[in-house]
Amino acid sequence: xxxxxxxxxxxxxxAVSSCNALARFIDFSRGxxxxxxxxGSGNKAKQLxxxxxxxxxxxxxxxxxxxxxxxxxxxxPVTEQxxxxxxxxxxxxxxxxxxxxxxxxxxxxxxxxxEKFDLPKAFFATAQSIxxxxxxxxxxxxxxxxxxxxKQAYYxxxxxxxxxxxxxxxxxxxxxxxxxxxxxxxxxxxxxxxxQEHDAALGNGGLGRLASCFLDSLATLxxxxxxxxxxxxxxxxxxxxxxxxxxxVAEDWLExxxxxxxxxxxxxxxxxxxxxxVTDSDGKKxxxxxxxIKAVAYDVPIPGYKTKTTINLRLWxxxxxxxxxxxxxxxxxxxxxxxxxxxxxxxxxxxxxPGDESLEGKILRLKQQYTxxxxxxxDIIACFERRSGTKVNWEEFPEKVAVxxxxxxxxxxxxxxxxxxxxxxxLRWKEAWNITQxxxxxxxxxxxxxxxxxxxxxLIEKLLPRHVEIIEMIDEELICIIVSEYGTADSDLLExxxxxxxxxxNVELPAAFSDLLxxxxxxPVVVLSDELEKxxxxxxxxxxxxxxxxxxxxxxxxxxxxxxxxxxxxxxxxxxNEPVKEGTHGKxxxxxxxSExxxxxxxxxxxNEPVKEGTHGKKKIPKPVPEPPxxxxxxxxxxxxxxxxxxVAAIHxxxxxxxxxxxxxxxWPEKFQNKTNGVTPRRWIRFCNPDLSKIITNWxxxxxxxxxxxxxxxxxxxxxxxxxxxxxxxxxxxxxxxxVSFLKEKTGYLVSPDAMFDIQVKRIHEYKRQLLNILxxxxxxxxxxxxxxxxxxxxxxxxxxxxxxxxxxTYVQAKRIVKFIIDVGATVNHDPDIGDLLKVVFxxxxxxxxxxxxxxxxxxxxxxxxxxxxASGTSNMKFAMNGCILIGTLDGANVEIRxxxxxxxxxxxxxxxxxxxxxxxxxxxxxxxxxxSFEEVKEFARSxxxxxxxxxxxxxxxxxxxxxxxxxxxxxxKDFLSYIECQEKVDEAYRDxxxxxxxxxxxxxxxxxxxxxxxxxxxxxxxxxxxxxELP
Length: 1032
Description:
Radius of gyration: 30 Å
């Protein structure tokens, strides 16, 4: 962090605000011959104002010195904010002054030609005007933190799914009304201007949205904190929906530039890959040679609500020094080779979660993770040293710095901090290890052990040789602890614990422990190759068909290519993000296990199949079992290297303690905590649902609920009030009408606002069970077709079934599900017999902005993952806040939501988490008998009614008792009947609109617990040990 001042020189109001002399030249009210030289900027501005057809303003607009001007308080017609908020704003907060600020940026911070003031140009000028206000508060915030030298939290995440920033920023500043009026004076509508903004393509799933909610809460609650991430040029991908299903194209969010970010060309850090480790005469290690790139900081302001505090999201972009461009090669015609170093550096930040089936893909992913960790820690350490002054006491580092790793992607923070403290700062191992453990904490987002991230030891050793040495030493320290805890008397128990807990998997014990587990040598176990084939997929398989990579939001490709033996792929079960498997996203390859000793004998002529010993007198040629790959278990490293481990929902945290990290929990119970996720009520009610917000404010008597969501519970006492219910229904209908227009524009389908809006929007994944939802719709459609028109109308409530979400590009089974949904919609939506009784719509390119429109319009939301496989979920919280009723399983945060909103106001179905293992065992033993309705719906799907596409692979995943991509691993068939019966209860409740509205009100009232403000308070107090710092 070579600099901490936030300035936009040479552009923006702040660039000239401190210079009164320059301010005289920027005056939009001068006469015809006014301005510099009689025909300068004043005259140009006057002409520009006439082009915009804005009424001439009598007052002048000047860029003023903030400290010399009185601040005017203006009441926002939408939100009334505190007077104190205006004290740091760089211009008066009235609409005319804001309009002048916007015109100033249109003229003097141009990104477009000067001829016209159309929507794109107006958006950028408006955003730059807002950014001026943010920068003043931004600088003041960190000036204050610098002076106080407070402990600060640093949140490292591979994703930050921010959404649009404009409405959120002016909403937090209390300037929504003023900006709406100012833009109206300029001939534009605020809503139309806001729609010009692209969603920042910095994330995909709940992991990134959670991180963004946390930043909003940190700023609002005045906690000293920064976020660190990567600046992805092309994001994950932009989703297009065609008749063939999902297509992926690169995101274009940066093509017109990003008005919110400020590049810090003076904040760059070197990041090294490859090379070698040498030891000098003093025994000190040096990592030398290799490939060096530069990480450059791009800063984005994050304003708090009704507070001056504006914190920072620092995003790293990568590049190579100009001297790495080989001019000689270029002039020789070798153009690609000449720019190779530049391309290799820049591509690190091209794409979020690049495909990793290839070795190059794996290397790129690991480079991304290390770049985030290395650049961020260098920045954090620079800040600590600067604030410490001339005397740096490294023992105080954990008293000033808290590093939170959002999932395992930033795990390399642990060896990187150790490397810096030991090799660069000269600390001893014991000191560095103590500091590291007290500084770092880890949030787990993954339920199944098989889904935890692993990387090839060989790959890390090649890319980060010094870090492997450190990881090996940490592993050795852990072995000492395990041996001390369990002793050596029971060698079988010790071997089991070492196998489960070590950071290094399939790696021999260090020399110091080599005699601990000495056993008599046994003959190698081999197995018939044909039997090996038959056992394919015999483990807890599941997962996508065809062995394709899945995409837990991130969506990773196939597993690490270590070991040539056949393997079983096990699907992840997390709720927030896709664990980055050792190169694979969401899948881990597990070597085949051999349960019996058998001898393989090959026929002498090589023509026949292998036969067992003693048969046909053939020659015996043993076939050895391949050695399993050596891996680094990143989650184990997180647990060992940090002082806290937290789950993200009550049920998830119990699974973490009882199953995922049970051995570690027994060893260090004090490390383990629960921090149930939350979402910001500012973006997810106050700004995205203004109609409902006004109703809540009116009935609770205050707008304090935006900051203190406990006040939402007061709605409970009015749940049966007819006036409230009428207002509630009117607000919902207004939001549904907006959604109707949106769906028509994006999909071409016209739906009825009188139908129930039934929505499932989330990353497409088998464990989230969009397949169960669409099969339920197919069953509903089949039943309708078998009835007369009058019977249909009496039996079924009209529904609009809305889907949204991305399937990772190599996750074939997820893409099949998308294709199936599209085909069902194309058939049902054009069936004249059905009409408005049933519509099926897939919304393309689902993102935060789409969610902000659909969630307020929702009436039923589906959170139907296989129990025990969703860590938490956050969309369920957003839906409940907006008065949507949930149908779901007892999984993730559903459990707590149901407790808070009331069992009668949540539609529950399906098997529970503790039953899942037994149900899978029952299936494997061939004892499961599917309900006839489930068999009927599969047959109907295969009948061709939804088009010529062959759904055998998709339906086949729900059939059989074992095998990869078979055996219904996610229990769609088991829960199908329960789901259908539950949906009948939904129809029954919706017919009684008074009852339904009461349920809706009670969902909003019960959602108070799920504010990210509550979650952040818990992190701050129980993990980070930081305190709010309110600016004077």
